[in-house]
Amino acid sequence: MAGTYKQRDFRAGIEDQSLINELTTRKIVVREPVRLSPGWESTDKPDDELNFRSVTMDQVDLELNPPKDKLNVVFIIMVLHGIGTLMPWNMFITARNYFENYKFSSNYTVINTTYASKYVNSVSFSAQVPNVIFNWINLFMPLGGDLTTRIVWGILVQVLVFVETVVLAMLDTSTWPGVFFWITMFSVVVLNTFNGIYQNSVYGMAAKLPGKYTGAVVLGANISGTFTAVIDLLALKMAPSLRTAAIYYFLTALFVLLACFDTYFALPINRFYRYHEMIFQKDKQKKELETKSKIHGRTPYWTIFKQASPQLFNIFFVFFVTLSLFPAVQSNIKASDENFIVSEKYYMSVMCFVTFNVTAMIGSLLASHVQWPKKEWLVIPVVLRVLFIPLFLLCNYQPVAFTRTMPVLITNDWIYFVIAVVMGVSSGYLSSLGMMYCPSTVDSRYASTAGMFGAAFLITGIFTGVLTAIVMPYIVSMRVWE
């Protein structure tokens, strides 16, 4: 068989031979080194990163394929944490009937006390003072390490305080009302101390994400008020006693905080959150390498404050005006018409708590879709909101233990309702815009610090508003009006 093959059988065909000749005669010219597209080497990245050292495949995949927030999971988690930031305050204020008309009432205690009349002012002071102090301390001297440590411990301590509050609700405290009062105030102090750290850290976390996610936290804070207002209405209608209603309040807060705890640990699993965390850290490192700052890694707080100050003022002033009126003034506005659609029993709950919280929630939700006016003009509607203070005082505001001498000029309940709606919507909308704009006014590596500044000015606005509300009964009771 070997001798039967001829040489021509092994020759290439005409087409094959022409292809071979073309390949052997063609010159391959490489004019420049091969580059990764798009311009990887021109991005001035560190050599370790260009050589893919210290870069995981997950990071490469995230950068090449930026993920989206599927099903708005991260947005919903931020809303939930927003609910958690105001849940302690809302629950203790909503449960005022439980404390004033049950635990400190003369029908329950064996002795007459003045704790019922002191409750609102005492709990407001006990809540806001530590909240303000630890918000500012946490900004300049982060307590407990990184964000994770601060958020986790902030939530856990609040959970323990609510467990203790539920236990106290179940106990018979009729023979020791004084001890119960001071235990309650101490619990409020501890609760809001750790809530201040938690709240400040949550805004710092949200500032690393696109602007609407900071708005989501504000939206959640307003939903928190709506949530507790609805629970209050249901309790008035369905709960067999104030004690049972209060236990429902505190258990609800407990479950919300546990949900915040669980969802925080779910964030690193989410690709969208990991991507923005990675971008934030890389941008921060890159800017530090480029500037080679002489401050040796110290955060330039004064520079951040100056750059963000217009939005910080907006945030402060929105909450200052709002808390000057809600709930202290608004909850004491009485019906002018006995035949109004809302009966006297539900007037305060509906016209104050439900109206404000629902409309503020709508305003925050609107800010996630519409951002107007732009950041440089936001101050105009913010400052104009100061007009709500005289408008509310001209309504049928009847402060407890004071004799009003100022004439009531707004005697139509529907006009008051419209004013209340505009106040609530503007509060939610403008505060959300201020918090959303704030991180974008500084260098991206300082966005988290700017977000924490915003949270500190938010709670400072609340605190000063609460203090100003104390003056309102004296204004409408001045002799000059007689």
UniProtKB/TrEMBL annotation:
Molecular function (Gene Ontology), one example: nucleoside transmembrane transporter activity
The record ties this protein, via SUPFAM superfamilies, to: MFS general substrate transporter
> What highest taxon heads this organism's lineage?
Eukaryota
Per UniProt, subcellular location reads as: Membrane
Output the InterPro entries linked to this UniProt entry.
Answer: Eqnu_transpt, MFS_trans_sf
How does the protein associate with the membrane? Multi-pass membrane protein
> Membrane-spanning residues where?
73-93, 151-170, 176-194, 215-235, 247-267, 312-333, 345-365, 377-394, 414-438, 450-476
**What protein does this entry describe?**
Equilibrative nucleoside transporter 1
